[in-house]
Amino acid sequence: MRVLRRTWFTIDTDDVRHVPSNQGHPTRSKPDETLPMISEQFRSGMKGLTSWLHGHEHPVTMFVIADQCESEEFVQMMNDLCSTFGERITIGCHGLHHRSWSAWPEDCEAFAQDLGASVSILKQHFPEHFKPWFRAPAGYVASWMIPVLVEQGFTVDSSINPSWLVNRKYGKGESWRTVNSTVNATQLVERAWKTRFSLPTCGPAQHIMGLRWNAKGAWKRLAKPLNVEEINLVEDSTIELDTIYWHVLDYARKDGTWSPPIKGL
Ligand SMILES: [Zn+2]
After folding, report:
1. What is the DSSP letter of 29?
2. pTM for the model
3. Which of 34, 100, 160, 192 could form a disulfide with 138 if both were Cys (CB 3.0 to 4.6 A apart)?
4. What is the domain partition of the chain in residue ranges?
5. What is the three-state SS of 142-160?
6. What 3-state class would DSSP assign to 127?
7. What is the pLDDT of residues 180-198, one digit of tens each?
8. pLDDT at 53 over 60
9. What is the whole-number distance in angstroms between the Cα of residue 186 and the centre of ligand 1?
């Protein structure tokens, strides 16, 4: 194994209507049909993301929910990012409608259809920027999903939160370790999320009381971020990476002044 430690920046594009309390989860979702296609928070988040990207030169991978492309405004915003920042923007797949697949009974056929439709939408809109990289909606992946990802041509999965704290969220008889060993038996490269003291540091952990002190501490001590010419190292299983993620919506926090607390950017 080459000793090259880098950090990979990833951002999920979930809008307000995609949160599990609104859609995609068998027990937690209570859909509110009045939520807009694009929220004001999302618009503010995209502005914050744009100015953050102007402040450094590192690449980011955005995991996009394909149904967001039903909005011309969304596609326009993404294309603006792509034309302004060029090769620094990679687009991965975050599902078609952000369905929490691992929380539902196993359904390989429907999952395969969801992935196939997502890939064709994302490729059609962002042909220069799309890569077959996947992040499971709602943050949990099940072992049965792994062979489907491989069949559908995915090369990278970044859905595992390797923390004891979330093991109860996995299906019966599963944990992040069982999913991880399923991935390791395939060609798929797993990019698990950064933890510190075995606790989550990504996404909501940056904001949840009781976790955020540790999460922020972790992000102050990250390895050097990948450079734009190194982005394909994400697909190289011999390279160790610290993978961190946050949301476009996070940039709307603190009246639009939030940015990820990464040291040295
Ligand atoms: Zn999501």
Report:
1. -
2. 0.96
3. 100
4. 5-256
5. CCCHHHHHHHCCCCEECCC
6. coil
7. 999 999 999 999 999 999 9
8. yes
9. 24
Cα separation, 265 vs 227, in Å, equals 12
**Count of CB atoms situated within 10 Å of the CB of 17:** 22
Rounded distance from Cα 122 to ligand 1 centre (Å): 16
State the residue for tokens 């969304």.
74
**DSSP three-state, residue 172:** coil
Q: Per the structure block, which two tokens stand in for 79?
A: 């294309």
* Fold of the CATH domain 5-256: TIM Barrel (3.20.20)
> pLDDT (tens digit, 9 = 90+) per residue, 84-123?
999 999 999 999 999 999 889 999 999 999 999 999 999 9
Provide the residues around ligand 1 (an ion) whose CB is within 5 A.
Answer: 12, 14
Could you tell me the two tokens for 157?
């999965």
Residue 22 and residue 17: Cα distance in Å, rounded? 6
Beta-strand ranges (E) seen in the chain are 5-12, 60-64, 89-93, 130-134, 156-157, 189-190, 195-196, 199-200, 240-247
Q: Token pair for residue 180?
A: 């991880």
What separation in Å is there between the alpha carbon of 83 and the centre of ligand 1?
Answer: 24
CA 241 – ligand 1 centroid, Å = 21
- Distance of alpha carbon 37 from alpha carbon 65, whole angstroms: 12
Nearest one of 23, 22, 17 to 38, comparing CA atoms: 17
Report how far residue 162's alpha carbon sits from residue 113's, in angstroms, rounded to the nearest whole number: 28
* CB atoms near residue 116 (< 10 Å): 14
